[in-house]
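QA checklist item 7 of 12: single-chain prediction sanity check.
[x] sequence parsed
[x] length recorded as 431
[x] structure emitted
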Amino acid sequence: MSRSANWIATAFALVALPGGLAAADLDAPPIRYATADTDNAVSKLQAGLKAKTTALKPDDEFGYLKAVLQAFDVPESSQVLVFSKTSLQRSRIGPKTPRAIYFNDEVTVGFCRGGDVVEVAAADPNLGTVFYTLDQDSSKAPRFTRQTESCLICHGSSRNQGFPGHLVRSVAADGKGELVLSRGSKAVDHSTPFEDRWGGWYVTGTSGKQTHQGNQIVGGWTWAEKDRQPASENVTDLKPYFTAANYLTPHSDLVALMVLEHQGEAQNRLTRAAFQTRLALHEQAELNKAFKEPPGTRSEGITKRIHWACEPVVQYLLFGDEAKLTDPVAGTSDFAKEFAARGPFDAKKRSLREFDLKSRMFKYPLSFVIYSRQFDGLPAEARERIYLRLWEVLTGKDTSKEFAHLSKEDRAAVLDIVRDTKSGLPEYWKK
């Protein structure tokens, strides 16, 4: 590329990173977030409903919830409960009527007692996270309605660097579920210190001496005497807090919460890497046209942008900065058992889904999100870069401080598991 074109492309990179890309118009080419065709679990189910090859049958108590979970193969054991008013149906949410969330690798489902809609967020290989609602009015034919502006006010805000994604927050909530803004809030993922997690959430499970913010409201529980407030940690029964029988299960499983917050940020980083790569390549293509360069010509600045976009994915998938557990933790439902049983397993019966839960979340520190359609749907330039960086770390070629938490045994085990279980690996991984 000519010197002038290379300088302009590099200038684009310097202006765009780290904050400028987040300000990009995602409804313009090449993303077209609001208008592009979707390819996810919801769009596939919607097609089946339209063709009448699939049916959703509501019930009197939960509306379409059970049918939706069954259609998406989402386990009831994944149920977690949030009582802070931090959702589309905030008027339905409070300590006595928490919002239930269910999830698997591809979809997250939100349900409010007496709510007008079931909320669904779906991982899409092309568009990252896509948001839908399903009207609970059983007199109408079931139809998922895609939501953009109403959901992106929060889910596409600066908290997600301007990209559509998941938000798992720890907040201070009062006896009505309202946020006590003076106490702030914190986005939660696997790097969040244990003691800062789950404000505004119910949590069932044991965590030893480790404290957290779950099961607490500002001012204390009104039904309890001041000197007899219920403990926040090691809660295994939610019946004293609200009518747990009004939900599919009596749990808000601690391990499910840990997986949900890990997965949410992993998917967010995949979305950002995909969009940033596509934006960079689009700008490069426009520059090539302007300067009459051959198609496929790429400047050093554009290449650096792609590398910068991918590195946060690599560090997160390898659990960089994961907050250490100081005591073993356990949930109260069958979630951990069911999640781990899904595999896939290598020749030695090992899996990236196998839990540790003593000093860290998983026994083998590479995220199961690497198996997702969203990962496979990354632009080739981003996917190849991430594969290369993972290989460099796992083979010991990169021993920098960002990956010092990985022992030699960790790296070797993960490398073997991925070789046995992941399709589409570059040839150099197989040697």
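[x] summary fact logged: The chain is about 30% helix and 10% strand.
[ ] second reviewer sign-off
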